[in-house]
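Task: sequence design from structure.
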């Protein structure tokens, strides 16, 4: 899947790995965020990308019962994303511009994150570019 195909709506991209304890801790908050977004009718896409093999990532996802769209890297992330520590999360606006870059784990199911995604989808009050969550560029 090319990210260009996802233009036109907010996109949350999380880089994670099954061997990364902070990554695993925050996956539950992403599931809750995805549910909050669905409940409010926000048209956002979520994508969780692992550098591991498809077999390893798939087994981990199945074993843990995650209901999120997971993918594996077919090639290294572009250098424009910078050095990726795991976990790293990006929130991308409908125009393809990175609005939030957050290094490290956090609780993503927060009202400010839902409001930001709503604003990017044209349904909220927040201004795109609000540094969220918790001053996102760390």
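Answer:
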């Amino acid at each position: 899947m090319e990210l260009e195909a996802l233009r036109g709506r907010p996109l949350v991209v999380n880089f994670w790995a099954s061997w990364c304890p902070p990554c695993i801790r925050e996956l539950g908050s992403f599931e809750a965020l995805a549910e909050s977004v669905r409940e409010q009718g926000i048209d956002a896409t979520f994508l969780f990308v692992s550098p591991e093999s498809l077999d390893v990532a798939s087994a981990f996802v199945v074993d843990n019962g995650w209901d999120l769209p997971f993918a594996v890297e077919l090639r290294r992330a572009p250098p424009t994303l910078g050095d990726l520590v795991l976990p790293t999360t990006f929130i991308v606006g409908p125009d393809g511009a990175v609005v939030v870059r957050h290094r490290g784990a956090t609780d993503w199911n927060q009202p400010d994150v839902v409001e930001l995604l709503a604003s990017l989808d044209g349904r909220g009050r927040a201004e795109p570019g609000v540094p969220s969550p918790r001053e996102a560029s760390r």
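DSSP finds three helices and five strands in the chain.
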